[in-house]
Amino acid sequence: MSPSRITFIAVATSFTAVASLQSLIIPVLSTIGSDLGADAVGQTWMLTAWLISAAVATPLLGRAGDLVGRRRMYLVALGAVALGSVLAAFAPDLTVMLIARVLQGLGGAVFPLGFGLVRDAFPRDRLAGAIGALSAIMAVGSGLGTVIAGPVSAVIGWRGLFVLPLVLAVTGLAVGSRGLDRSAPTATGRINVLAAALLSGWLVALLLPLSSGNQWGWGSPLVIGLFAIAALLAAVWVMVEVRSRNPLVDMRVMRLPAVWTTNLTALLTGAAMFGVWAYLPRLAETPASSGYGLGADASTAGLIMLPMLVTMASIGFLAGPLSRVVPFAAQLTIGAFLSGAAALSIALFHGDVWALAAAAAVLGLGTGLVTSSTPNLIVRSVPGDQVGIATGMNANIRTIGGAIGTTVFAAAVGATLGASGLPTESGYVAAFVIGAVLAVVGGLVPFLDRSRSVRPEVRTIPVAQSPLEEIAEAA
């Protein structure tokens, strides 16, 4: 098997493992909390620990991979995922579970490292197809947790959920350690320690109140203070990076029109995407006595989300070949508009299972196009020695968008709690309408890049077969 095929298999396996951990415990969070003696705040920390760890590790380890070799850092990050999955499966209490989630979050660095490995291993005529397929796998993995958590935990318990990421991580380690070429550094210099500390600081200060603001109170001094600290540290971080001879994040690259518009779209569509993922199952599981809920159990709610995975994977694998006809910038806009249409459909038509499943299918098409085109636009727009940090920052921005989206949805739904303790229908309608607006605005952002009117793509990469097609032929 060729080195490029081995690289694709290793990276695809690791992407699925890490992406699934993002949403795997959400549907069964209360069950895990009950078994581990964690209250609502403790349950939130199970999500926050992963979020913060991934947000910090993604750009730092991505940059380290550019400096010391991507293969080495890829194996380190994937090893942390495997260890964290074992700890989570056997966690006796909340403390051990939080340590496990931090280790799992370090795997977020697999995304920028994986895209860099693929760029190094694939010829230019197959690169777009490979990145599109991997992006689809990453998106499918993110939604996979929501779909399988209910059925799997009902059969073997919530601890069995961590078997999937463990097996995938071990497989990725085995294939990667034996099959990946020992990549040489693609950049020179060193990691700017001050910039790394400032980046970590403002990410933590921003994500903490975003994920815990509902419990702490949005007007509390703690939340307001953390937002202020995040803004201050972010401003200082930008100044340090601009003046540094060895910047962690090259601000000249971040200011490229194709990069900043893609990142802004990732922020907005990420907010819509994660908000819908989190609250579509909750809408379906709302008791029928509410007058609008379907009273679905966790397994049925997972099945409602299943069409999303199918369409997301299908369109994602076609994104590379499709780019010969529809440029990636156009795919990004079309995908955002489809996601917005799906969210609006859920807001207006949520009276039966089929309506929600159809909306989920459309959401999968939109999400697949967005997640496949985004890294292609980034990778095609930055120098080789900036791939790790640029894709890492893009993944981070989508993560921040996801935190913002789930927070906005929670605020909209929670603001309408009735005497029964259930939110009213208007709360869900407002939340999904907001999601639709965020997605549509995200789809309009690429038009701010006026250079696209002259040159639709920053660099032209011909597209041949997708790597999956070549693997199938080889088999």
UniProtKB/TrEMBL annotation:
PROSITE patterns: MFS (PS50850)
Cellular-component GO terms for this entry: plasma membrane
Family matches, as InterPro entries: MFS, MFS_dom, MFS_trans_sf, Tet-R_TetA/multi-R_MdtG-like
Signal peptide coordinates: none
UniProt keyword Transport, yes or no: yes
Residues in Major facilitator superfamily (MFS) profile domain copies: 6-454
A molecular function (GO) term: transmembrane transporter activity
Membrane topology: Multi-pass membrane protein
Compartmental location: Cell membrane
TM stretches of this protein: 45-62, 74-92, 98-118, 130-150, 156-175, 187-210, 222-240, 260-280, 300-319, 326-348, 354-379, 400-422, 428-448
A matching Pfam family: MFS_1
Keywords in alphabetical order: Membrane, Transmembrane, Transmembrane helix, Transport
Protein name listed in UniProt: MFS transporter
UniProt source species: Agromyces ramosus
